[in-house]
Amino acid sequence: GQNIDQPTEMTATEGAIVQINCTYQTSGFNGLFWYQQHAGEAPTFLSYNVLDGLEEKGRFSSFLSRSKGYSYLLLKELQMKDSASYLCAATDSNYQLIWGAGTKLIIKP
Amino acid sequence: GAVVSQHPSWVICKSGTSVKIECRSLDFQATTMFWYRQFPKQSLMLMATSNEGSKATYEQGVEKDKFLINHASLTLSTLTVTSAHPEDSSFYICSAFTGTGIYEQYFGPGTRLTVT
Lengths: 109, 116
Known about the structure:
The complex is a heterodimer.
Chain A lengths: L2 E3 L3 E5 L4 E8 L5 E7 L6 E6 L3 E5 L2 E6 L4 E6 L8 E8 L5 E3 L3 E6 L1
Parallel strand pairs in A: 2-11
Antiparallel strand pairs in A: 1-3, 3-8, 4-5, 4-9, 6-7, 7-8, 9-10, 9-11
Chain B lengths: L3 E4 L2 E4 L5 E7 L6 E7 L6 E7 L5 E2 L8 E7 L2 E6 L8 E8 L7 E3 L3 E5 L1
Parallel strand pairs in B: 2-11
Antiparallel strand pairs in B: 1-3, 3-8, 4-5, 4-9, 5-6, 7-8, 9-10, 9-11
């Protein structure tokens, strides 16, 4: 079957670094998305990884290992506004998105 | 980036009535749009894939006669919740592919439906 696993909730301190992991099993694989979703709002795009390795975009970086079926989102210099849910989604062989349940990130002062 | 709008942003209706939600791609043409629903503290659940000029493809367990989807043009898809019941109360979100690049889905702002 197709499955995406990510932690339900994480807590981190303002100014620190946090890594949110995601493992996936899909029928074929084309790429992996990370989205941020604040409560009551629609998701917003953060990153898309197709090739193995780390892609950095400002305070956010995303890593992919296709052989391990593993990705992580790294958030640096955490700010209070980063408190949100982070959704991992893999695209299968038909480019259909398979969504994880999301990781709720709580930032404490 | 690509912009997707949704209307209305929130709606309250009585049980048994129908509600129409519009999803528009404002600065690009979207041959494919997606409709999701999301319950509190849960992830997105794909309801259907809407293709311009053809019938929508519904996910297993989604009643096609209850959730009517019409993709009338390259910039507009509508979801009509027919004979709404309180259990249909949810956050409905549409998204669209631009058709180029990395198959990134751009999301509308969502519609919160409350059925009383």
